[in-house]
Amino acid sequence: MIAEACGLADSLGLKTGPRSPLAIANRIKAGLPLSSLERLSKAIAPDDASFPYRFVPRATLTRRKGASEPKLTVDEGNRVAAVAKVWEFAMEIYHDEIKAREFLYRSHPMLENQKPIDVATDTGIGADLVINLLGRAAYGGGA
Fold it and tell me: Per-residue pLDDT tens for 97-130?
């Protein structure tokens, strides 16, 4: 569990402080830095400038960038962390950013032909569904 927390902390760009699951939960509660969203966006969608707006509306994000310490709300941070977990698991399975992105951006029949990235960014439960789907692919469950 600690190794998973370290990978998640890396995806969120949390370099300092404890890297346990509880420490990450506390960081989310205190407000993840806006840089966590930027880092995740560059990893998952490097060519999509609108990807961050899946989490924070454009006007809100623009306004927050002007703050002295821009942070995400708890709800935004939870969604960003959930998608970061999806990304970490996809990377663990595919060991390649391009292959992980191909999986995330390809419609999947077990998600009613929706793209896993769309399901994962919509809700925390959606992110859990995508993680489950990745687990099936990794462990022979027919995904």
Answer: 999 999 999 999 999 999 999 999 999 999 999 9
Angle at CA of residue 81, ends 38 and 116, nearest 5°: 90
User: What are the pLDDT digits (tens) for 55-89?
Assistant: 999 999 999 998 888 999 999 999 999 999 999 99
Q: Which two tokens stand for residue 52?
A: 């961050």
CA–CA separation, 138 and 93 (whole Å): 6
Task: Domain ranges for the chain, please list them.
Answer: 2-138
Here the tokens at position 38 are 């930027």
Q: What is the pTM of this model?
A: 0.90
> How far, rounded to the nearest angstrom, does the alpha carbon of residue 85 sit from its chain's CA centroid?
6
Angle at 24 between CA 91 and CA 20, to 5 degrees: 80
Question: What is the residue whose two structure tokens read 């996809």?
Answer: 90
Element (H, E) at 125: helix 124-138
Instruction: Return d(Cα 111, Cα 109) in angstroms, integer.
Output: 5
